[in-house]
């Protein structure tokens, strides 16, 4: 019931905004010179609704039994490098300096490569979003014992200590500056946690002195 209530709230907010601006245009409350701005808001909120629905479908798929199967060996370095390249435009828009530290040899791990690609994408996209313009984006991969450790770090606002235990919750958005933009739907990190739980792996987060770092594990193949 809590989940349904959260979903209803997340859907209601952009729908109310869309309806309000559309009605304002139709009934003349919004004058012609302001209608382009109103339409831009309607467009942005519609896209946000679309992202929310896609994330809901992702969650439905992740929570089915099908997603725990089909684990195979793959090179985590190649996977994360591919995700980094796919985000090149966003990285350039933020003028970020990328520091990537990978092993010289391929690092084979067990997992569902598509699902772990989603983990990498969500974490890197999140780091880019909350990085300060012109800051450093760090991606590191190391092997210790039977595990691979993949870390993603950004330079931006520090997450308050009381928020850290809640950051992977469904629909959790801190009231602080790491969520001031409206692009997110509060599900990205929950999806990351769900995928890694399905793999029986861990993820941790630290945030101090303007550096926020997420580190997750995978089992070496």
Uncertain segments are 175-183
Total DSSP helices:
6
> What is the succession of H and E elements?
HHEHHEEHEEHEE
Main sheet properties: 5 strands, mixed
The global form is globular
Strand order of the largest sheet: 2-4-5-7-6
The computed structural class is alpha+beta
Query: How many E-type strands?
Result: 7
Briefly characterize the structure:
The chain has six helices and seven strands.
Structure description:
The chain is 47% helix and 21% strand. The protein is of the alpha+beta class. A five-stranded mixed beta sheet has the order 2-4-5-7-6, covered by helices on one side. It has a two-stranded antiparallel sheet with strand order 1-3. The longest helix is centred in the first third of the chain and has 31 residues, at 32-62. The termini are far apart. The model is unreliable at 175-183 (pLDDT under 50).
Task: Considering the chains and any ligands shown, give keywords for the structure.
221 residues; alpha+beta; 5-stranded mixed β-sheet; two-stranded antiparallel sheet; 6 helices; 7 strands
């Amino acid at each position: 019931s809590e989940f349904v209530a959260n979903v209803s709230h997340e859907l209601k907010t952009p729908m109310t905004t869309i309806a309000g601006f559309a009605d304002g245009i139709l009934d003349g409350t919004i004058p012609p010179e302001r209608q382009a701005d109103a339409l831009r808001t309607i467009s942005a909120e519609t896209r946000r609704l679309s992202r929310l629905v896609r994330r809901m479908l992702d969650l439905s798929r992740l929570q089915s039994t099908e997603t725990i199967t089909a684990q195979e060996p793959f090179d985590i370095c190649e996977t994360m490098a591919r995700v980094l390249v796919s985000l090149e435009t966003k990285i350039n828009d933020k003028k970020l300096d990328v520091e990537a530290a990978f092993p010289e040899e391929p690092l084979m791990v067990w997992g569902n490569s598509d699902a772990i690609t989603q983990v990498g994408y969500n974490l890197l996209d999140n780091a880019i979003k909350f990085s300060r313009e012109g800051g450093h984006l760090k991606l590191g991969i190391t092997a210790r014992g039977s595990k691979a450790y993949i870390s993603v770090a950004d330079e931006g606002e520090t997450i308050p200590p009381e928020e850290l235990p809640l950051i992977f919750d469904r629909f959790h958005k801190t009231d602080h500056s790491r969520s001031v933009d409206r692009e997110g739907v509060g599900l990205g990190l929950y999806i990351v946690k769900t995928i890694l739980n399905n793999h029986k792996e861990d993820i941790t987060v630290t945030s101090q002195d303007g550096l926020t770092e997420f580190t997750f594990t995978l089992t070496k193949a």
